[in-house]
Amino acid sequence: MQVLTTAEMYRADQLAIAGGTSGFALMLSAGRAVAEAAADLVEEGPIVVVAGGGNNGGDGFVAAAELVARGRQVTVVLLGAREALTGDAALAARHWSGPVLSGEAASLGHPALIIDALFGAGLDRIVKDDARALIETINASGVPVVSVDLPSGINGNSGAVMGVAVHASETVTFFRRKPGHLLMPGRAHCGRVRVADIGIDPAVLHEITPTIFENVPDLWRGIFPVPGPEGHKYARGHAVVLSGGIASTGAARLAARGALRGGAGLVTVLSPSEALAVNAASLTAIMVRPVDTAAEFVEVLEDHRLNACVIGPGAGVGLRTRALVLAALAAGRHAVLDADVLTSFADRPDELFEAIKAATDAGVVLTPHQGEFSRLFSEMDNKHPFKSKLNRVRAAAVRSGAVVLLKGPDTVVAAPDGRAAIAANAPPWLATAGSGDVLSGLIAAMLAQGLPAFEAACIGVWMHGEAGREAGPGLIAEDLPEVLPAVFRRLYDAFEVEY
């Protein structure tokens, strides 16, 4: 569940060594785990290990020796001079008595499998020259590839491709995943990721105190809302969704349906009078109430049972939307701010951020896609290809005072206190009109049930991804709320909750 940056992984190694485990012992365990993965992937045929000059190369030498001990034919291709190896990598090379070819020739022959031990997670420079040629040769080989720690060419912290990167069939990493295993495009290069135990005591995490996590149920298991037998609808919160005008009501209804299916006890769509009949004719369990102005919205919010708002889907860009948001925040309501809200404040972000920070008791979640993020956080949205999405979202959370959720195949949720979670369960067919509106409703359902904003956003993102998987190819946004019962059942089974 914890995800370690390259600096934190280095710290974990050092703490293990300080605790009495030698660096070479860690390398032996790592190399053996790589050999195990290689043997599982291809049961026969020659293997080529492509090794670099660092500890990743040392892991490769250990894997080569282990595979030979299992009766496999192995050749090591080394980028650089063998005598230039230092430390544990040099020790691993001294234990290897098989053939070592020069990587500068970039010829790998015709192996059944390649072990990529060229670069590790700490790569932060563009791959050039002989290294680039080797990676291109690996990718052109057409054979399965097992990468050590991360596919060579992927930055471990950002997931960026540093000019060129290996496309692995499987990646063996150690102790914990790195951000580059989860963030795109790195995740697409990793294949199946195997996390190997190499002898680092998990207790070192107490000293490292990681703040990045993979967004999986174990992250929020202890806080997930489960209705009890004594519960009632009012105990599960009342979410309200602000609708736009008569031509743009569908987005609000999708969000409302997501909120109701997500567990909110009651949901009301607050509709402009001109659209009241359209919304009322389309809704049953979801209530409808006329609201035309921010002043009327303030009157509605005098009922403190209405405890979570969704504002933005189909709301329209402009003064009315800004006024509704400021009213909700002034009333201290939990809020999911999406879509048109983010564009409405694009030229005055400080007004929004100051209102969020003043609403100290309210949980606020901003849910932009990349375009909306760029407009609202223009000063920090560096589109440089190596810029970390994770760092951008964390900076945006600090800047805004809200939990920020940047949508995508690798949705990142970040809180102002530095915590961040990366999701890896979203199928590509979630990229369809209205999908994000359902997500906003799901998050509002969790806020209505009393969850903190960070956990509410993480749960909403994960359940949204699982609903997409459940619905499958060809889904449209309307399908997502209807498959949520199956997602809840799987969660309850995993959490051993009776239902």
Helical region count?
20
**What would CATH call the class of the largest domain?**
Alpha Beta
Largest sheet: 11 strands, mixed
**Ends distance:** 27 Å
Uncertain stretches of 5 or more adjacent residues = none
Q: What is the name of the CATH architecture of the largest domain?
A: 3-Layer(aba) Sandwich
CATH topology of the largest domain: UDP-N-acetylmuramoyl-L-alanine:D-glutamate ligase
CATH homologous superfamily grouping of the largest domain = Ribokinase
Alpha-beta content class: alpha/beta
Beta strand count:
18
Strands side by side in the biggest sheet: 1-9-18-17-16-15-14-13-10-11-12
Strand content of the residues, in percent? 15-25%
**Shape label:** elongated
Mean pLDDT: 96
Binned, the helix content reads 40-55%
Detail the topology: elements first, then pairings.
Layout: E1 2-3, H1 6-18, H2 23-41, E2 47-51, H3 55-69, E3 74-78, H4 87-94, E4 100-102, E5 113-117, H5 129-140, E6 145-148, E7 170-174, H6 179-182, H7 186-190, E8 192-196, H8 204-208, E9 212-214, H9 217-220, E10 238-242, H10 250-261, E11 266-271, H11 276-282, E12 287-290, H12 294-300, E13 306-311, H13 319-330, E14 334-337, H14 340-344, H15 349-358, E15 364-366, H16 370-376, H17 389-400, E16 403-406, E17 412-414, E18 420-422, H18 435-448, H19 453-471, H20 479-494
Parallel strand pairs: 2-3, 2-5, 3-4, 5-6, 6-7, 7-8, 9-18, 10-11, 10-13, 11-12, 13-14, 14-15, 15-16
Antiparallel strand pairs: 1-9, 16-17, 17-18
Helix pairs in contact: 2-3, 2-4, 3-4, 10-18, 10-20, 12-13, 13-15, 18-19, 19-20
